[in-house]
Amino acid sequence: MLSQSSTAPFPPPPDRRVSYPDDMSSASSSSSISDPDNVDPTKLGRPRLGSRKSSGTIIIPRDSPQVELKEEEYDDGDARTMSPRRSSEEIEKMGQEARQALIDPWTPRLTFARQAKQLQASLLEIVDRVEIVKSEHEKLEGGNKFLQSYIGELMQTSKITSTGAAKAKGKGKGRTVK
To answer: For 55, what's the count of Cα atoms within 13 Å in the CB-facing half-sphere?
Structure first.
């Protein structure tokens, strides 16, 4: 028989982990460094601690030349563009109202009066709707009472006819009615 090590169908995979000593590691971990001959050239290793950049926040003054502000543009299908925002017409109208308020001190009062009138009109519309719903409800209640009394009368007549039919069956067993 052949030895098992030469005919093993799956040889153990080589250890391809690469480790680097850094300032935080202990001296005992330096023995786990792989030989440079065993390093896979297709795998990139982790950079040494000294050459890595921190992933933390870097505080830079606003007027620093290193500050790069990028204006991002989003597609129409992007969720960030789907949030409710004011249209350009609304923004323009708000800007005009603000400018007018700065020019004329009476404008805010007029705006409040206009808003109060709009609110009053909407309240009157709501009251009208409530009255319409109330009248419809009363009509439905009247119809419901009528149907309940009609069903009650039908039940009474069906009881009378059923008891009368049972009596008639007992009396006239020999004859058939055409």
So the answer is: 1
Spell out the residues 6+ positions from residue 66 whose beta carbon is closer than 8 angstroms to its own: 60
Dist. CA 112–CA 93, nearest whole Å:
16
Q: Which H helix or E strand runs over 31?
A: none
pLDDT tens for the chain, 178 residues long, are 444 445 556 666 666 665 555 545 444 444 445 555 566 666 677 666 666 666 667 777 777 777 676 777 777 777 666 656 677 888 888 888 777 777 776 666 667 788 889 999 999 999 999 999 999 999 999 999 999 999 999 999 998 888 876 676 666 555 555 5
d(CA 116, CA 122): 10
Tell how many helices (H) and how many strands (E) occur in the chain: 3, 0
